[in-house]
Amino acid sequence: MILIKYIFLGAILLGTSFIGVLMSKKYSNRLRDLKEMRKALNFFEEKIKFTYEPVPDVFDEISCKVNENIGNIFKEASISMNNESAGVAFENAIENSNTNFTKEDKDIIKGLAKMLGKTDIDGQVSEIKLTCKFLDVQIKDAENEKVKNEKLYKTLGATIGLALVIILI
User: Fold this and answer.
1) What residue ranges do the domains of the chain occupy?
2) String of DSSP letters for 48-75
3) CB 128 within 8 A of CB 48
4) What pLDDT tens digit does each residue of the chain (169 aa) get?
5) Pairwise CA distance, residues 88 & 44, whole Å
6) Which of 97, 100, 115, 144 is the most exposed place for a label (fewest CB within 10 A)?
7) In sequence order, what are the residues at sequence separation of 6 or more whose Cβ sits closer than 8 angstroms to the Cβ of residue 37?
8) Alpha-carbon distance 74 to 67, whole Å?
9) What angle do the packed helices 2-50 and 68-80 form, to 10 degrees?
């Protein structure tokens, strides 16, 4: 009977610690997604500047070169461009994406979507550069949040688990 009690208490401690780790992962995942979006936009900028390929083809290529979350945005936008404008397709893809972006992150990227396909190549490149500058600020904020909150959630999970174990003993 005592063995079952200790196994149960250990499971509680492990469970709450695991929950703390899961909650802390959202900060790492957001940072990863922001960096991948920055990488994708850099690739997009270079392709527009030097190859003059159509945007759907560039988006299709980008979707293969970045991680799954960000790749899905570009893939969905590429497919949607058959029925709607590039800007609308990209904006809808961002809105429907399964990423770890905050509303502010999405709004910054949607700013680029609004100008996509409405200016010449130089205008597109300058808009991408502006978006990348905004993303750099978001990346710094995400790094700060990660440092601050990741450790907090891990510690909080373990502390709550220990408190529950102590109460149940």
Assistant:
1) 31-149
2) HHHT---HHHHHHHHHHHS-HHHHHHHH
3) yes
4) 888 888 998 999 999 999 999 998 999 999 999 999 999 999 988 888 888 788 888 888 888 888 888 888 889 888 888 888 888 888 888 888 888 888 998 899 888 888 777 778 788 888 889 989 999 999 999 999 998 888 899 999 999 999 988 888 8
5) 17
6) 144
7) 66, 70, 109, 135
8) 11
9) 50
> Tokens standing for 143?
């790094």
116: left (phi over 0), alpha (psi -120 to 50) or beta: beta
Name residues whose C-beta falls within 8 Å of residue 167's C-beta, 6 or more positions apart in sequence: none
Tell me which amino acid residue 67 is.
N
Number of alpha carbons in the 13 Å side-chain half-sphere of residue 73: 28
Cα dihedral 81/87/92/97 (nearest 10): 90
Tokens 């922001």 found at: 34
166 is written with which tokens? 């102590």
